């Protein structure tokens, strides 16, 4: 079962003993680091997400991390390899051209 970045973030916020001291937005800004992203991806380890979830990953990387469309394919490839998250069999899903045309 997969968990979106937003739901993972909300869960971490709700479980934080200091949540009354700052807003969800402030908490999110404090978690804009590789280690929190790795925790989220680790929570999705050994999953086989559908394309809807892959699009959620892509949107998170673009909106939260500021990644360009041209880098998405290589990021998905790295996620698959590093976290054993098996991407759907979609022609071109790891290519720069696929994401640049899809997100144009």
Question: What can you see in these coordinates?
Answer:
With 104 residues, the protein is an all-alpha fold. Helix content is 58%, strand content 0%. It has one domain. It is built from 6 helices and no strands. The longest helix is centred in the middle third of the chain and has 13 residues. 11% of the residues are buried.
Helix content: 55-70%
Helical run tally: 6
Number of strands: 0
Rg calculated over all Cα atoms: 14 Å
Given as residue ranges, the uncertain stretches (5+ residues, pLDDT < 50) are: none
Output the helix-strand order: HHHHHH
The largest pleated sheet is described as: none
Give the overall silhouette.
globular
Helix and strand content put the structural class at mainly alpha
What is the mean predicted local confidence, pLDDT?
95
What count of domains describes the coordinates?
A: 1
> Which percent range describes the beta-strand content?
under 5%
Write the layout of secondary structure elements.
Elements: H1 5-15, H2 24-30, H3 34-43, H4 51-63, H5 72-83, H6 96-102
Brief synopsis:
The protein is built from 6 helices and no strands. It is mainly α and 104 residues long.
